[in-house]
From TrEMBL:
Domain Helicase ATP-binding per the UniProt entry, residue ranges: 56-231
Name of this protein: RNA helicase
Domain of life: Eukaryota
Entry's family note: Belongs to the DEAD box helicase family.
Position of sequence motif Q motif: 25-53
Residue ranges annotated for the DEAD-box RNA helicase Q domain, each copy included: 25-53
């Protein structure tokens, strides 16, 4: 067997935490069902990126993760693929129960990109994805959320609005992703992010991704993640 630490060095990746699951070298190592493998191939993804090599096994094992990696490193698939697996493991959703996976992103553009990527992988399973962000009609979003979805991708402000309007509850939410946490804080969303996290059951799985880890983000991570594994890709962090 190849020395894992040598392999990690070749990826310029640093990992810390206890009992870290071994990185994968190919998507085949993840044990994904065939529909997910087909969707990965259809996307033209031949090999997992560095962050995917380490993050996928960690997240698939159910652990919380802090992923520090810059834009373009392939973080979306690293949290979307395990999210689909997580949802397939859950009892089917009743209409009024609210989403199982909740993804927060700083801007509507980013939320929309994640929405598109999630839909590509969710489609084969009939997993429904809703996007919730500013600039879209609140009434339309309210109706869409009321119809039910397994995944919601949202900017923090609009998600809070929808929660206040009782368009959804988060009682079934067990998989929370905070994407680009540093940018969410830069844009002043810390109170909204904290409020959302506070409305999701504490036994959830939490994934926090950020290009940088300023003190405020580090503090949030300490407060809301349980025994996380930290994965740093490249020179950042
Ligand atoms: P990040 O969120 O880290 O900025 P994205 O998840 O948006 O990065 O991915 C950046 C680009 O790389 C996207 O165009 C995405 O489709 C592509 N990509 C992601 N994973 C892979 C992969 N394993 N192989 C090839 N391209 C990939
Ligand atoms: Mg991204």
């Amino acid at each position: 067997e190849q020395d894992v630490s040598e392999y990690m060095k070749s990826l310029a990746i640093r990992v810390s935490g206890f009992d870290v699951p071994k990185p994968i070298k190919a998507f085949e190592d993840c044990g994904f069902p065939s529909q997910i493998m087909n969707a990965i191939k259809k996307q033209g993804y031949e090999k997992p990126t560095s962050i995917q090599c380490q993050a996928l096994p960690v997240v698939l094992s159910g652990r919380d993760i802090i992923g520090i990696a810059k834009t373009g490193s392939g973080k979306t698939a690293a949290f979307v693929l395990p999210m689909i697996v997580h949802i397939m493991d859950q009892p089917e959703l009743q209409k009024e129960e609210g989403p199982i996976g909740v993804i927060c992103a700083p801007t509507r553009e980013l939320a929309h990109q994640i929405y598109l990527e999630a839909k590509k992988f969710a489609k084969a399973y009939g997993v429904r994805v809703s996007a919730v962000y500013g600039g879209m009609s609140k009434l339309e979003q309210f109706k869409e959320l009321k119809a039910g979805c397994e995944i919601v991708v949202a900017t923090p402000g609009r998600l809070i609005d929808m929660l206040k309007m009782k368009a959804l509850t988060m009682m079934r939410a067990t998989y929370l992703v905070l994407d680009e946490a540093d940018r969410m804080f830069d844009l002043g969303f810390e109170p909204q992010v904290r409020s959302i996290v506070g409305q999701i059951r504490p036994d959830r799985q939490t994934l926090l991704f950020s290009a940088t880890m300023p003190r405020k983000v580090e503090k949030l991570a300490r407060e809301i993640l349980s025994d996380p594994i930290r994965v740093t890709v490249g020179e950042v962090g």
